[in-house]
Fold this sequence. Notes:
- This protein has helices at residues 20-30, 47-51, 69-79, 168-177, 197-208, 304-322, 337-342; strands spanning 9-10, 13-16, 36-40, 57-58, 67-68, 86-89, 93-98, 104-108, 113-116, 118-121, 127-130, 146-147, 160-164, 183-188, 213-216, 218-225, 228-235, 242-245, 248-251, 255-258, 274-275, 288-290, 295-296.
- The chain is α/β, with parallel strands linked by helices.
- It folds into two domains: 5-129 and 256-342, 3-Layer(bba) Sandwich (FAD/NAD(P)-binding domain); 132-253, 3-Layer(bba) Sandwich (FAD/NAD(P)-binding domain).
- A hairpin with a 2-residue loop joins strand 16 and strand 17.
- The termini are far apart.
Amino acid sequence: MTNTQQDVISTDVIIVGAGPIGLFAVFELGLYDMKCHLIDILDRVGGQCAELYPEKPIYDIPAVPVCTGAELTERLMEQIKPFSPTFHLGQMAEKMEKTADGKWRVTTDRGTMLEAPVVVLAAGGGSFVPKKMPLKGIEAFEGTSVFYAVRKMESFRDKTLVISGGGDSALDWAINLQPVAKHVTLIHRRDEFRAAPDSVSKMRALVASGAMDLKIANITGVSGQGGHLESVTMKEEGKDPVELPCDSMLAFYGLTMKLGPVADFGITFENELVPVDTATFETNLQGVFAIGDINVYPGKMKLILSGFHEAALMAKKAFPYVHPDRRYRFQYTTSSSNLHKQLGKDE
Length: 347
């Protein structure tokens, strides 16, 4: 289907990146009546905190002596609930262009088109990109029968599916796709998993009941024709390699960071980082801001708390772009009845 003008979603602010800094930006912008849509390549919010270290303790969030990455994400989501942000997950911001009326249009790799007077880059070190399977000839099957993410569960309806990996994504999708696929086999190189204990328990229960299979093995090869997978070769310790029939495979081998298409947005970069004005955190493009680990300036410290500060100053500068007919008035959340109303605390 071709996108038309009617397909474009209008909002106040487009935020690229749904990690902690992007989420807190929703709060700061929301206080001043600016609605946000967020784009993130991951299938969940939280960025690095949720994907790379959900259980790792964080000690430098003000007034929170210790919390995990997952807990910080949950608290930020609770904090921004009054502002009802819209999330476009599992999508990469692929193109940014200026519209005839002076707004910014951002298009994702799934065809989602967003327009706003303000764009905020909160993409950390760039986009998370799945690590590919290090197997000879795997490229011939990628995108047709070998995948590194789930876009639509229905794509795996009645498939004989192999899922490779031992983290949260592998186990979550093994559990969720088990009722959808014809058969699911989970393959991991060892009988220990980096996933949430509840997910491990659910997976083992499905295996014990015969609803799915678990193989402790390494995948050493793939075979098929015309981009369509027919089997994978797996090697269990102390045993000869065997071929396991399958017509689809999901591989979750972790993520790596790449700058991605954002480098082609017309923004000035220095060593893959975005220089900003430290009074506003605006880039060389009017109405386009960069906060968090993606920006650079004298004295920059790559800390979550620094990104929170940057989000607050960014929101102040964003206000006149979104509300040119209104005067910005600084208010304290402790005493402002207007902000209390925004937060739903005016009872």
